[in-house]
């Protein structure tokens, strides 16, 4: 990304009334027209990006407050499994690990079994971490799929379309190749 930090802008926080309450209109998308549905999702992601960030943070904080120990244990077990697998089978193996693998294959097998046991023992914590990550993603997708765009949303999106690629969501969508048609 060649965008300098001077051009980087955050979208304004939209009102709760516009985002979710009285003036918000929701409707199921036309599942037969994926282009129109995708355009609605992308434009809502751009328009409400700060609201979605706040919503995701609130959901993560709430889940973290209910089960902080399980979240920490789940994250630790996920990182331990990833670290161990990268150490044993990663592209840049440590010479001492290569020597251990060649000398004592049963020790490596026992280590893998131990890591698998710990991962399965902490599986409920791992699932809680996955839920904590996937809940904000799914709630953002559901809201952006169901939220109909109003005239203010369309006008603001058109006006902001020139500089929207400099916002966090604009950068992400541009990197994914999902920028919408501006004047549709």
From TrEMBL:
One GO cellular component term noted in the UniProt record for this chain: membrane
Keyword Membrane attached: yes
Highest taxon listed in the record's lineage: Eukaryota
Membrane topology designation: Multi-pass membrane protein
Membrane-crossing residue ranges in chain numbering: 45-65, 71-91, 103-120, 126-146
Intracellular or extracellular location(s): Membrane
Alphabetically ordered keywords of this record: Membrane, Transmembrane, Transmembrane helix
A Pfam family per the record: PRA1
Key word Membrane present: yes
Family to which this protein belongs: Belongs to the PRA1 family.
Protein name (record): PRA1 family protein
Native organism: Chironomus riparius
């Amino acid at each position: 990304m060649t965008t300098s930090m001077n051009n980087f802008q955050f979208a304004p926080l939209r009102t709760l009334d516009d985002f979710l309450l009285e003036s918000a209109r929701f409707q199921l998308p036309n599942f037969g027209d994926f282009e129109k549905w995708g355009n609605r999702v992308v434009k809502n992601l751009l328009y409400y990006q700060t609201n979605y960030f706040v919503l995701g943070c609130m959901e993560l904080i709430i889940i973290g407050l209910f089960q902080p120990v399980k979240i920490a244990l789940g994250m630790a077990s996920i990182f331990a499994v990833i670290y161990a697998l990268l150490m044993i089978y990663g592209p840049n193996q440590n010479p001492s690990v290569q020597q251990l693998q060649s000398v004592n294959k049963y020790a490596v097998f026992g280590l893998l079994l131990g890591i698998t046991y710990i991962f399965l023992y902490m599986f409920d914590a791992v699932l809680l971490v996955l839920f904590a990550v996937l809940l904000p993603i799914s709630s953002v997708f559901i809201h952006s799929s169901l939220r109909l765009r109003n005239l203010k949303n369309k006008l603001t999106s058109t006006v902001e379309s020139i500089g929207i690629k400099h916002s966090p969501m604009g950068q992400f969508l541009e990197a994914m190749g999902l920028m919408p048609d501006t004047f549709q």
